[in-house]
Amino acid sequence: MKYINPFFKKYKKVLSFDGGGVRAIMGVYFLKRLEQETSRSIFDSFDLFIGTSAGAINALMLGINGSSITDIEEFWTKANLRKIMNQSFIDKTSILQTRPKYSNVGKKEILSRFFADKEIGTALKPVIVTAYDLEKRKPVLISSYKDSKVSVVEAANASSAAPIYFPTAGMNDGRWLIDGGIATNNPSLLGYVEAKKLFGTNHIKILGIGAGLNKRKINGRRSKNWGALGWLRHDILGIMLESSLQNEILKDLVGDNYLRVNSSIQKVNRRMDDISDQNLIRIKDLSDEWWSKFGKKAINFLNS
Description:
Blueprint: E1 12-17, H1 25-38, H2 42-45, E2 48-52, H3 54-65, H4 69-75, H5 78-84, H6 105-115, E3 127-133, E4 138-143, H7 152-159, E5 169-170, E6 176-179, H8 188-199, E7 204-209, H9 220-223, H10 228-233, H11 236-241, H12 245-254, E8 258-261, H13 277-303
Helix pairs in contact: 1-4, 1-13, 6-7
């Protein structure tokens, strides 16, 4: 199925969201400012939405519900975050974490509150989320135009099933999926490729919203002796999620038609589940820095 816009546009625009747990809120704050400054809704400004993990939820809020950014903020309230990040699965008797840190009961409850029993095929605009099929050992895309009968709650839960944090997601079709960030945490390149096929044009622009990069130096010499616990303590999952290769490939492909909004996390906690008041304030502060650095470019992006 092709989505055809009756009004000609020189460029089709793709909005891409990285995964990053609670840090994905930075992009929401940035886009809220963009809506305010341009007096144009983010939903109306883009033709396709794609996201990974927490970013998948943002993409689905736009593509499925046509949400304003203020609506998306409502998903990420402190009360909802507490519900999502409950600790009913944690094994408090063990030095090592032997089970997922959180159950997915609270997460599914919040997702159901926002998406009810909608199927992804009911999208108002094309939307894609990434996941990883454990049994087939390959990344998968769940899209509104190829997987129309998949429930939105299932799609969001699977894309955000981050190993260590949440259980593997069992799908109604028998697949077992985990967080799409395992394969690509920045899905901008995938969004570009899908948009080319879907819209039948090379005139595509991509706005890639990051979730901050942990640039803390890791001691290479000490790492020689790390086993599983040592690597977990030193953020091996974060290292895997922060590959810049696809980002560089896309920049080479489309040049200035790709705008990347991201930076080091600075004082924001690298852990994806820190919902303390202090960390949430730091997330807001970093989003303000992003606006100072990328705001004018983002406005020009929408106006071109």
